[in-house]
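Obj.: predict assembly geometry.
Materials: sequence records (below).
Method: joint structure prediction, all chains together.
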Amino acid sequence: MIRVQREDFDVGAELDRLSADRGSVGGLCAFVGLVRDMSGRRAISAIELEHYPSMTERALEQIEAEATERWPLDASIVIHRFGRLEPGERIVLVGTASAHRQAAFEACEFIVDWLKTKAPFWKREHTDAGTRWVDARASDSAALARWDREDAAGHGPSVRARGAPKKAAE
Amino acid sequence: MKIVYFAWLREKTGVSEETVSLPDSVNDVRGLIEWLGAKDPGYADAFDDLAVVRVAVNQEYANLDAQLGPGDEVAFFPPVTGG
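Observations (raw structure tokens):
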């Protein structure tokens, strides 16, 4: 499930929903991204998150579908906030549910790596020195490329999706 | 054609979205950028370093060679920083 919203979310309630009525779920993995209070040596008073509404949901749906194809997930959720957020506030939740932990861990990390480099959001920081757009980090692209390399090398995710790949079945 | 701009590309061009009619000579993203850059110094500044400009055509990532038609929506934005 995908949600793009201004308001906060309840992590516990969202994770409960992932496993509700799904007896096969043996593990949940969650990543929660928060607004930091420092940018380098400057104190952050707030950030603003801008996004491209008509592209955002489509992009997030694509990545969730890709994760579901690569790993045997029973359920997943991605919630990303936009607008003005203060230090300590939650920005994003990625939650994955699977029979076993490894698929849940890997799929969660994959989705986070992907949305750091592909989901159309932009952060602007407010500090006492003014405002500035946050620069993309090369390390985020490197983190995503890791998943490509694993595929290219023929290893792929260490937990294979159940059954035939969906693309082949269609 | 509709063009939308985000983050500092919106600030440098001074517009968040606009509708333009392309001349016959412009048929891909690269041509569109050149055409826009010739219009106004703010656009030229926004497109000065294409290494930090990302493009989407109809809400999908695209490259400079992507072909364009009159009904397309083109978006220009910096590398993303969400998550």
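Conclusions so far: Residues 2-77 of chain B form a domain with the Ubiquitin-like (UB roll) fold (CATH 3.10.20.30).
To do: check interface contacts against the pulldown list.
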